[in-house]
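INPUT
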Amino acid sequence: MSALRVELFFDDEAGNWHYRVPALHINGGGTRAREDAERECLSAIAFALEGDPQDYDTDAETVTFDVNVAPAA
Amino acid sequence: MSEQQTLTAAADLSTATRRCAGSFPGRRDQVRLIRGILSAFFDDSPAAHDAILLVSELAANAVTHSASGQPGGLLIIRAETSPATCARAEVEDQGSTWDGDLSTAQPPHGLFIPKRPETTSRRRHVNHPWRSVIHDRRGAVFDTANFYGSGMAKAARVLAALKRDGWIETRRSGSHRVLVRDDQQRIWAYHDGADLGGPAMARVARDYGYTLAELRKL
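OUTPUT
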């Protein structure tokens, strides 16, 4: 089990919530509610983990791992 | 590390104080290196983000506007963290023709930073080295409300600026984009209409390798 750090912060100039995921180099947000930023962050993490088929080596043997991202208990 | 770069670190176990100091060639590319070193040094300090941001702006300023940026010029950074002081950092340049009149300093120009109460500096003597010192009191982070300067931007505008500076969109799904430049990859997950104020723009700037002032100018 690995823990993924997500940084949520309120931008008091814009009056909205943003997030960073340092390990995956994700910046996003701009939502009114913190909960919305958290939800959008999960979507962005999924996008980051999908990867780009153009980067795939078609000659390689592959395995697929199921990765589930959810808030830690 | 080049011949011009030096880096020392020390720790006082009795006071749990850690210090590091380094001199760097006065070049723009060194600002990113300094940012990385301070990020590792300050680690989990609550003031880390703001301290690194402030030092980045001051270092970029020294490279651009002081003798540190001339061939052979150097820039000196000192940093300290302890339970008592939380965070402290110094940026020392090699002097300039500017007389230190801070009344003219305005965002996004980095000169406005020494006007902040967290930053101390003395009247500078022309062509003499000058230090800007950033303090953070225990338990408090920098009051950044006014530090970032004014001016929000729509995410689409910031994204366009990044693309103008060489970031290439290689993949997109909805509002999620992969941006690539050289060997670096970032995920841009903002809707075009999202508002970014100074705090958000500062984090974007840091993550894309800019100072806030540089990002605002793109």
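end of record. Chain A is about 25% helix and 25% strand.
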